Amino acid sequence: MCHTAIVHTCSRNEAELKECLREWKKKGAMNQLAKNLACEWAKDNIRTNSVGPWFIRTPLAEPLLNDEKLLEEVKWRTPMGRIGEPKEVSSLVAFLSLPAASYISGQTICVDGGLTVNGFFFPRA
User: Fold this and answer.
1) pLDDT given for residue 27 in this prediction
2) Can you tell me the distance from the alpha carbon of 116 to that of 36, in angstroms, rounded to the nearest whole number?
3) What DSSP designation does 100 have?
4) Spatial CA neighbour of 8 closest among 101, 103, 104, 93
5) Per-block mean pLDDT, blocks of 10 residues, the chain (125 long)
6) How much is the pLDDT for 78?
7) CA 9, chain centre distance (Å)
């Protein structure tokens, strides 16, 4: 049986990032799209998932990460205390594309060092 996997990610360049930001303002359109397509395409053995990265050390993020105050705030809010690396996102995308993930569909998986499980807003100690 042939299986197909679709993994939605945010962007690969600045133009796509701006488009994603417009979509996010539409109440989580990317995540909901993955869920809707997972239900609709399951009968055709097509899985669809989303990957939600936090701050990842990429050329597009470097100007932001060069701001020491912002960098320290991001690290402080991230339970793992560091910025993510591109391979940490790409390895998840690769896994979701493999037969080993054949029963995973309609999910949004955050690659965020624990940010979402810790909460987005919390006071500094």
Assistant:
1) 47
2) 22
3) G
4) 93
5) 64 60 61 88 92 90 92 92 96 95 93 84 55
6) 92
7) 6
The reported pLDDT for the residue numbered 105 is: 94
State how far the Cα of 39 lies from the Cα of 55, in Å rounded to an integer.
Answer: 30
For CA atoms 59, 116, 11, 47, give the dihedral sign. Answer: positive
- CA–CA separation, 73 and 71 (whole Å): 5
Considering the entire predicted model, what is its pTM? 0.75
Helices (H), the chain: 14-24, 29-41, 62-65, 68-77, 86-97, 115-118
Under DSSP, the state recorded for 82 is: S
Give the pair of three-digit tokens for residue 32.
């909901």
> Distance between CA atoms of 56 and 101, rounded to whole angstroms?
23
